[in-house]
Design goal:
Layout: E1 6-8, H1 12-15, E2 25-30, E3 35-40, E4 46-48, H2 53-62, H3 67-75, H4 86-108, H5 112-117, H6 122-135, E5 136-142, E6 153-154, E7 159-164, E8 170-177, E9 182-188, H7 196-201, H8 204-208, E10 217-219, H9 223-226, H10 231-249, H11 256-278
Antiparallel strand pairs: 1-4, 2-3, 2-10, 5-9, 6-10, 7-8, 8-9
Helix pairs in contact: 4-11, 6-11
């Protein structure tokens, strides 16, 4: 009988900063039960046997081994800037894509791209990233230091928020917390760099990281524990923030929209590879 394996759809490398003690507990908001609970990071954002072991190895190589170095590199980037370093941009785009696929697979069913992703070599991955970046660009959003704004970590990892590109109507974009103060932000290429500060300074981005309440749990920043904030206050804030997020966005959004875009890219790449193989 095959032994069950505990696998994280949001890696523990990402949730380390949300841990509140040496036992690696994380304070969570239970969206459905509207309660505050303590969860072990070992089992939070995890299920048994989500995918084959070789995909877990692929993800470790693509992200986990380099995560600390990536964070250090991000610290050297000016606040709220788009990422222009090609190597870093490729790594972060791959991280974003992988987490979209992993959380989509966990909550929304089978995702074709997840099976394909680890079969591609470096050359194919570069094509995927290149195609992805033809529509989107990545930026690092950094919350102001020294205040009580921190990112929550929703169980979808990626959360939607409202943006407005120059002379364009309001639209929905996505962000992905990689620390308590930093998030990878996905923007349409029409969005101008000088508009980044508007996103950060209006105070909405941290609140939006609570998500839309369509999934089941959210990791709470340790700030609330260390300041002995009453649980009722945390619950009240989470409920109100989620309601406001829903009201602003109006529709029940899922990561499936980006997932479909990615699957189209995978399909085009597969057809291109097959054609190439037939000509040799």
């Amino acid at each position: 009988m095959k032994k069950s394996q505990n696998q994280h759809y949001i890696t523990r490398k990402l949730t380390e900063q949300w841990e509140i003690n040496n036992a690696r507990d994380i304070l969570c908001y239970d969206v459905l039960g509207q309660a505050i609970k303590y969860k072990k990071s070992k089992t939070l954002f995890a299920h048994n046997n989500l995918w084959p072991h070789h995909f877990e190895n692929f993800f470790n190589q693509a992200f986990e081994r380099e995560f600390n170095n990536i964070l250090k590199t991000l610290d050297s980037i000016p606040l709220n800037q788009t990422i222009n370093c090609d190597v870093l941009r490729e790594k972060l785009t791959l991280i974003f894509i992988i987490h979209i696929l992993r959380t989509s697979r966990t909550y929304y069913g089978e995702v074709k791209g997840l099976k394909q992703l680890e079969l591609f070599g470096k050359k194919e991955l570069k094509k995927i990233i290149s195609n992805f970046l033809q529509k989107y660009k990545l930026a690092i959003a950094t919350l102001p230091a020294g205040d009580n704004q921190f990112f929550f970590m929703p169980c979808s990892a990626i959360f939607p928020f409202i943006v407005q590109a120059q002379q364009q109507p309001f639209s929905v974009s996505y962000a992905f917390p990689i620390s308590l103060k930093k998030a990878i932000v996905l923007l349409e290429n029409s969005f101008l760099e000088e508009q980044m500060n508007t996103i950060i300074n209006n105070g909405n981005l941290a609140r939006c990281s609570l998500g839309l309440g369509e999934l089941d749990k959210v990791a709470i920043p340790p700030y609330y524990k260390s300041n002995k904030t009453d649980k009722k206050i945390i619950i009240s804030y989470c409920k109100k923030a989620i309601c406001l997020n829903r009201e602003l966005i109006k529709t029940s959004l899922k990561i499936n929209s980006i997932t479909k875009n990615l699957e189209d890219i995978f399909a085009m790449l597969s057809i291109a590879n097959q054609s190439s193989n037939q000509t040799h």
